[in-house]
Design a protein that fits this description.
The chain has 155 residues and is mostly helical. It has seven helices and no strands.
């Protein structure tokens, strides 16, 4: 009996769908940020929906599809910490209580996650190198998104 939730044949299409959904959500978030800069209607809804969906994807289901059995724990822990970034941006954007604590947690943990992934990639086997490369890319992009949204005035 397989230890995976999904069989190998089902895992690849699910991984491709997750990546496609992730890209669409990121594009919607970028469009929402551009709407916010121009003060056009609908910006807050686009930003909120994209950030909530991104956090759900990264919490840890999305990273499960990106790894195999040996990286499952790294994927889950990284997904948990990286889902803090969109949630902290959302709380800051909507001026909800606890936004400062979430932003501080995201600012502290995201570089630690990136450094840990870089360290683990150094000692990784060739078969798992693509997993670590995709995790490092996503982590770096989320850190850049956090910096961009922090610099963008959210009033």
């Amino acid at each position: 009996m397989s230890e995976n939730i999904l069989d190998a044949e089902q895992k690849v299409p699910a991984k491709n769908k997750t990546i496609r959904i992730e890209r669409i959500i990121i594009v919607i978030g970028i469009i929402g940020a551009l709407f916010k800069i121009q003060h056009w209607p609908g910006a807050n809804i686009m930003i909120a929906l994209s950030l909530i969906t991104l956090a759900i994807i990264y919490f840890p289901l999305g990273f499960y599809f990106l790894g195999n059995n040996s990286e499952k724990m790294v994927a889950v822990v990284s997904g948990l910490f990286l889902s803090l970034i969109p949630v902290s941006i959302l709380f800051k954007h909507l001026h909800w209580p606890g936004a400062f604590a979430l932003v501080v947690a995201a600012v502290v943990t995201s570089p630690l996650v990136l450094a840990t992934l870089l360290y683990l990639r150094r000692n990784a086997a060739a078969a798992t190198m693509s997993f670590y490369n995709s995790m490092i890319l996503r982590t770096a992009l989320l850190i850049l998104l956090m910096i961009f949204m922090a610099l963008l005035r959210m009033h």
